Amino acid sequence: MTNKNAKHSDTFPFGVHKGKRMIDTPAWWIKETWEGGQYPAVSAYYERYWAEVESETFKHFNRDLIVYFDGCCEPVNPYGQMGWGFYVEQGGRWIHQSSGRQQASTKNSANTAEYIALYDALCWLMDNSFSDHNILVRGDSSLVVNQMNGVWGFGANGLYLPYGLECKKMFGAFSNIEIEWIPREMNEECDYLSKMSLI
Predict the structure, then answer these.
(1) CA 196, CA 169: separation in Å to the nearest integer?
(2) 123 in the same domain as 43
(3) Domain range for residue 40?
(4) Would you say the pTM of this structure is higher than 0.90?
(5) What pLDDT is attached to residue 17?
């Protein structure tokens, strides 16, 4: 239940101070907080929520291209079969997709597959002269996104290391590119692409 004695700033279970977005706040918190009489907290939530929605919308409308990528390693990770895929949107419309696979190997892992998907996407963008465009890349791999953003370092013994370092290098060839994490539920198309090749 909601703590009625808590300060309003502490009533946000997924607030900015915890590194999360207000957009991700669950509906049950809104209901319990409202029923608990903490109307200022709910009002503050919606004010910040719509500010984030506006920011997200503005960010996407100002992108020439949005690229989604995903990878998997099945039926075991590591060393199973790898599958990966990516697709590209321009102006809100699909313009390209690609997928690939690799037989089971001791060099395979889910992280490697994620990086191969990103690598293939970056190669396609460069081959099609998109390096000077405003690009947003989206994926559900925390490892890839954080490493590409410089938040996390590269593990010296990671199976993905060769592809990770190459992707990091390739990012420097783009004039305006950004990568962000999204929940898996927002990446279902690429999840399908990555697993389709394994069927």
Answers:
(1) 29
(2) no
(3) 8-61
(4) no
(5) 35
